[in-house]
Structures are given as structure tokens and as C-alpha cells.
Amino acid sequence: MEKSKLSEEKGAPVISISGLHKSFGELEVLKGVDFNLFKGENVAVLGKSGSGKSVLIKIIASLLKPDQGEVVVLGKHPDKLLGQELNALRLRIGFSFQSSALYDSMNVYENLSFPLTMNTKHLTRKEIDNSVAEALDAVGLGDKTAQLPADLSGGQRKRIGIARTLILKPEIMLYDEPTSGLDPVTSAEINQLINEVQQRYNTSSIIITHDLTCAKSTANRVAMLLDGKFTKSGKFEEVFKSDDAQIRGFFNYNFIQ
To answer: How do strand 13-24 and strand 172-176 relate by DSSP bridges?
Structure first.
């Protein structure tokens, strides 16, 4: 399905946020955020450092609690869940950390099999092997099972981190700066992978980034988070046609060809 059509064929949102506030001491980061993510779409959330982008997805994943407002994820209120109910919701959300968050002492196979053995006790060894092979195939690194993270390039670590997230087949993917620190060629490969994940797994994704090439390449819709609120949302070209000085300044600072 073409990206332009995806954002037009909206049903009920898989994430719905209204009036979200979050402060850390005297620092008010999110100041009344309203946001929806619809099934099957990729949304790139853009904004300068400190604008609250990563705080937003940590609240969605229930790694942080909101101070005020409503957050609904897959029909649940994560800030109101505890124990097994909260864990069950988290298993439906894949979080791809900026650092890849791999265990240095584990090889690639062990890194990928770990979430399966921790969260799905009934699987046989063959089923785990098949799941690892499928996830590695999805990111194009099926020959890396025995390697340690230290032996991988930065782009390969990003891919393995995404594979480990995919192994539980989440419905929602949260990408935190997926191309940060990568060269242009490797960044383009990660952008392509994000699109392939969307198509292969029918995920709904939020992509936190300051990389305009990543946003333009992967997003059905982009949303500008400025001064603690979303100021504009739409297709990439629509958003950056804005006369808003802050949006123009962000574009000019992060200019892409």
C-alpha cells in the first residue's frame, strides 16, 4: 500500500493521547500534548533536543508516568496497569533504543533468544531457533548468530537491536533516533529496514528523529514537537511549507537535499 494512502485510511487509533503533561522538577517538558497514531502508519516525531520526543515514547511504553492527561495504547491505559497486565501490554510494544541496548556478554543468538525465553516459557528449542532465524532474516543478518555485539558495526548493532524487538512480533514499534551516529549509506539502509518492517509485520510506528532524510524516507506523516506541544502534523512537504519561524529554522538547520 502506498504511504500516501495509509494515512488517509484511518480507523480507530492504536495510540491516543490528549492533554499530556510531564515535568521534571521545575522543568516542564510536555505541555498539553495531543497525538494519535493509526494502525499501519509510520509517524516521524521531529523536534530539537530537549523538546520531549524521547519522554513521549517512554510514557507510551510506560517507562515514565504522565503528570496529567490521558494515554491510551491498544485500548489500555498503561499508567493505570500493574504487574501482569502491564507486562502483557509492553510485549505488544517494541522499543528500539538509540543505543541498541544489546547485552555485550551475549552473542547475537543469545541476545535474540533471551526475550523469548523470558516471556514465552512454552516454546521449544526448535521454535526459538526458528524465531531467531526469522527475525535475523528480516534485518538481513542471518549469518551473524555467533558474533558478539563488539564484533558488529554500528549499523549491524542497530539491525540486531531491531531484530530483538521484532522477535516478539509487536503491534507498535517505537524507534528512538534510529539513524543517530550512522554514516549516510548505513542510515539509508536503516531507513529501508524501517519501511520493510512496516510492510512485513504491519506495524504502527513512531520514529523519534532529528534526521530529516529519515523522516522523509520512512514516515507517512510527520509531527513537529516544539515548546512541549505538537505544532503541525501532516505529510513531510506540507509541514515544511509552513511559514512558522521555528519550523523553518528546524528545517534550515537540518537541511536535506
So the answer is: unpaired
The total number of structural domains in the chain stands at: 2
Decide: pTM greater than 0.85: yes
At 60-98, the pLDDT tens digits run: 998 999 999 999 999 999 999 989 999 999 999 998 877
Cell reading at 210: 532529528
In a shared domain, residues 165 and 80: no
Same domain as 50, residue 143:
no
